[in-house]
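Weekly structure sync, notes
Attendees: PL, DS, HV (note-taker this week)

Item 1: Dipeptidylpeptidase IV N-terminal domain-containing protein
DS walked through the input record. Source organism listed as Oryza meyeriana var. granulata. Sequence as pasted into the shared doc:
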Amino acid sequence: MLMDNGTLGPAKEVHGYADGAKINFVTWSPDGQHMAFTVRYEDKVDSSVNLSLWVANAESGEARPLCISENIRLNAIFELFVWVNDSTVLVCTIPSSRGNPPKKPLVPFGPRIRSNEHKNVVQMRATKEMLKDLHEEQLFDYYATSQLILVSMDGQVKPIAPPAIYTALDPSPNEKYLMLTSVHRPYSSIVSYERFPKKVELWTVDGTFIREVCDLPLAEDIPITSGSVRKGKRLIRWRPDMPSTLYWVEAQDGGDANVNVSPRDIVYMERADPLNDEKPQVLLELDLRYRRTSWCNGSHALVYEHWYKTRRTRTWVISPDCKDVSPQVLFERSSEDAYSNPGSPIMCRTPAGTFVIAKIKTKYEGTYILLKGQGATPKGSIPFLDLLNINTGVKERIWESSKEKYYESVLALMSYNPKCEIQLNQLKLLVSKESRREPAQYYIKIWPDKNQVQITNYSHPHPQLALLQKEVIRYQRKDGVKLTATLYLPPGYNPSEDGPLPCLIWSYPGEFKSREAAGQVRRSPNKFARISSNFPLLWLARGFAVLADPTIPIIGEGDQEANDS
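Item 1 (cont.): predicted structure, written out as tokens:
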């Protein structure tokens, strides 16, 4: 627990599960009094893997199985479980009537036939591991189908909704409704499950069906052009600042980015249980492709749109509950221009467990929020924190990382207010601090003096390479484009004494619309050099130099596409 002075209270060890068990999917209840997680262990008799749902009391640390019956087995193919309220968990389980998996028939079902009677030519991206035949469709049904159950803290179980292939479980902020997303037949052998027919339904938490939000058909015809999307309702979400209001977006171009139309996307909003004659409310009409919304309250929300072909991105300020207030453009820029990136808003946790933009109270009039960003500059990334007047667009930098030795970054808001209204002079933030030779440690930074309280003390994960050498280098391509790379050298290497080294180059090309964007610096020399399984720094131990992520830009300026050259 975080104390008022920024320090952490005493640690509590969770106990009660068997030795050797593996813990995954740790999730706190909305009130923070319980912690749910899965326990996975191998059966000593048949070596099968068992997965069960456990819950731990935050005060005592005592853990116990949540489902009393051993016949209840979790299905972890897609969604696993989600807290509905402080004392109830919605869980995906294996249907009790599932039986044995279907066997592949000795005789084939028949020839694979693909027909294109309407002569529609649709380009498709090459994708592996698609469903190949009817037997694999049966296996998909068998393994992915779940029975949803509601489990209370006393172990009481209640089935809800029919068995289906549920891919998303979303309780409403007021804990009254459940939005259940599932996929169903007909399946496809040329696209992944995300494009299978998709149904979104609303249920009450006591198991009453409310309505069908949408049932989208199979989407095999989405154009390959960047910016093309599925037809119909997409990105259906709960509005986090309201009890039970849905919002979503619908393409007006048929999902085809090649079609010129205005508006291109429309954002809608609707109550979970609307009146008979109540129609969805139009929140905003967009000429670019919708990306996301950051909600604050009924007076302010940020809507982001983007167009890949031109790399244009816009951020709108809207007043979702004030129809007489016109939307205003807050930022408009090139998404490739890292130097002009204004950052993203600091979010605050509500009593319902959702996240909205934190409203910052200052001595000045107006509505203020905080923006945190990576702070790309020609000299390297310098993370920052800005105070933004959302009405005027005026920003003030109230903090930035050290430029010399350390790389500091704002991670999350630690101040709490049930209305998400935070006094600037009482601000508490979780930040990380690292250097090229020191692993990231976490601190609580406290305003107004910006004092830091260290809350972690991690040791170096690979001390044998603690003295490796790291440098961000800049150089120029023959065509004049400025490039950047990170050079790693073995500990103790001296070029005058040790001579040249073999060099491993680790990179992948990137697409850009301009030479200027391709030449921008998007890294910091002060970030810790962490060894991982997907990064080649272990070669330093074998005496290699490693040139990591050298910029290899493919540039398509104007109407040209990067890969057309």
